[in-house]
Amino acid sequence: HDFTVRESFRAIDICNNAQIEIEDVTRFLKRAGYAATDQDAMAFVRRLDANGDGVLTYLEFAEGIMPMEPRSSRPKKLGTDYGLPKSAYTSPVKKSLPFS
Questions:
Q1: 22, exposed or middle or buried, with CB in 10 Å at 0-12, 13-18, 19+?
Q2: Which of 10, 17, 58, 74 keeps 20 to 30 A from 66, CA to CA?
């Protein structure tokens, strides 16, 4: 079965704290059978982390994995009714990363 964006976010958010951290990505990839390093996970998070706080909110994740299409054919907004806590849509806490 195909995963929805929300199901994918929840599958990677192993800590179930409405955000994806580097550790979540590493654990998810290892559970999926990939020989992932922390550097691989860090690269993934950095690529999608729009505000540079070191964690992915649902919106950062969703916007980062959505196919690139011309603006006229993209949905106007992703919305906020995905059954996730409100904190999944914002990053209230700034975290410094060890590699910054």
A1: buried
A2: 17
DSSP 8-state symbol, 26: H
Angle (CA) 10 3 41, round 5°: 55
> Cβ distance 25 to 12 under 8 Å?
yes
Residue 23, pLDDT above cutoff 60:
yes
What would the two tokens of residue 80 be? 């906020």
Collapsed DSSP state (helix, strand, coil) of residue 56: strand
Mean pLDDT of 91-99: 43
Can you tell me the mean pLDDT for 55-76? Answer: 77
| Interacting residues of 58 by C-beta distance below 8 A, sequence separation 6+ | 6, 9, 18, 82, 84, 88, 89
Q: Please state the pTM of the whole predicted model.
A: 0.66
